[in-house]
Amino acid sequence: MGLVPEFLIVLGVFIFLALSLLSALLDEDLPPILQYLFLGSAALGPGLLLMSQALVSGGILSPYPTDPTRFGISVTYLASAISILAGLNVYLALARRKMALSSTLSAAVTVPIFMISAILVSSLLGNGGEVTFSPATILILSVSAFGIGLSIFEFLREAHKHVRSSSIAAGLLLKNPLSVRSKKREDDWEESPKKGRE
Known about the structure:
about 200 residues; mainly alpha; about 85% helix
């Protein structure tokens, strides 16, 4: 199976989209502007794909997967996505003091994505775009995919609990001030005739 270097850009786009979803789920621990920055970075990927295709069609870049310019652009975009993911782990561990969350994110998402990316980049470098799957490679990719799927499921389940509890708490807060105010008014009405008599 042959790969073109632009496949690494597609992988980077998925990483940035996952980072945007993750930052939306961890809105209490991360600045809210991050999810929009990650979406903007993900939107840059299709632009790079179109630019690369136009340069190949125009004859400026070589159509072969071993073209160093195409490979360099693709690897740079993927490396930026992975380094931002690793930086997010460091931020959660050091700045927010969420070591458990950081280690879970690192073990379930960062390390499998790094391993998959390393396998794809080494295949592009060593075999000219041909990806050869040895039994060890298939095992690594299977474990990584299972780990990523399980972690995404767990994150979505926890996020659902968090959103549900937040919406219930928000609903109670919206209901309670009104009931507190109406009860206070009733107490004022009851107290005011007594005060008038005294």
